[in-house]
Write a structure and sequence with these properties.
With about 280 residues, this protein is an alpha/beta fold. The chain has a single domain (about 10-260), classed as Rossmann fold (3-Layer(aba) Sandwich), CATH 3.40.50.150. The protein is built from 11 helices and 9 strands. Strands 1, 2, 3, 4, 5, 6, 7, 8 and 9 form a 9-stranded mixed beta sheet that branches. Helix 2 packs antiparallel against helix 9 and helix 3 runs parallel beside helix 4.
């Protein structure tokens, strides 16, 4: 791998669109709107507000998902000793990004971010600043093309694929339909990682409030955005077969190793499962 003199680098995988279309909603910008960010447009807010009209607790679930991400990275960088992270579907930079959390634990940690929204690339260039000891990179690429993503020279420069890597698929898999063969996408990514690597993932579900969450999902579908909710068994079978689950296994994101005893939201308010597993 290259040294850390240039601690942050950026690239677009060949074939990835580079235009920012403000007239069409994009999940990354909608997510930013939900969690209180400022990097979104009228089209994003319009569809997000339609989803929230059906599922008013939507912001609670997404913020719990963000907290889950932080706890997972802290566990992986701390207890599990992971020093490399591949965050796919990273979304717009916010507070407590993966490298922020990981490098607080281990300043030498390296993080590669990947998202399909060209606006994320623009903001990543301004906001993703690595520690001097570590490295960050951002690639504009599509999860549906894992082989193209994995062959990117910058990714191979930043991450050493002979050493354990944490693959982060947080709140992104529900944007893959069955026709996208998400299990094959995940399998391709995992196959590229050495033993001792980890996979962390989260996924929306309608199990606990099908009417409200289903209405929110329909708002996405009506806007032309693929959105699939899956139950806990479907999520586990799709993502974690053959891996060693980290306790407590697949649970609501709010229930994954909470860092306080404060009252937590109801299952219907969260409506998002998460889990972490190790590749043997």
């Amino acid at each position: 791998m290259a040294g850390s003199a240039d601690s942050t680098a950026f690239a677009a995988v060949e074939g990835t669109r580079s235009e920012i279309d403000t007239s069409k909603p994009h999940p990354a910008r909608m997510y930013d709107y939900y969690i209180g960010g400022k990097n979104h447009f009228a089209a994003d807010r319009a569809i997000a507000d339609k989803a929230l009209a059906s599922w008013p607790a939507g912001r609670i679930g997404l913020r719990e998902n963000r907290k889950f991400l932080g706890r997972v990275v802290k566990y992986l960088a701390g207890e599990a000793g992971i020093r490399q992270f591949l965050d796919i579907g990273s979304g717009l930079p916010a507070t407590n990004n993966v490298h922020d959390v990981a490098q607080r634990v281990a300043p030498s940690a390296r993080v590669a971010y990947i998202d399909s929204d060209p606006m994320v690339l623009t903001h990543a260039q301004a906001l993703l600043t690595s520690s001097p000891e570590g490295r960050t990179a951002y690639l504009q690429a599509d999860l549906r093309s894992p082989e193209r993503m994995l062959s990117c020279p910058l990714l191979r420069e930043v991450l050493d694929f002979s050493q354990p890597i944490a693959l982060m698929l947080i709140a992104v898999l529900h944007f893959l339909g069955d026709e996208d063969k998400p299990d094959e996408v995940i399998g391709t990514l995992l196959e590229a990682l050495p033993p001792g690597s980890y996979l962390a993932a989260s996924h929306m579900t309608m199990e606990h409030d099908p009417v409200a969450v289903g209405g929110g999902q329909q708002a996405y579908l009506d806007a032309g955005i693929t959105m699939n909710s899956r139950d806990s068994d479907q999520f586990a079978r799709m993502v974690f077969p053959g891996l060693e689950m980290v306790p407590p296994g697949v649970v609501l994101v709010s229930e994954w190793r909470p860092d306080s005893r404060a009252p937590r939201p109801t299952p219907g308010e969260v409506s998002c499962y998460g889990g972490v597993a190790r590749k043997p």
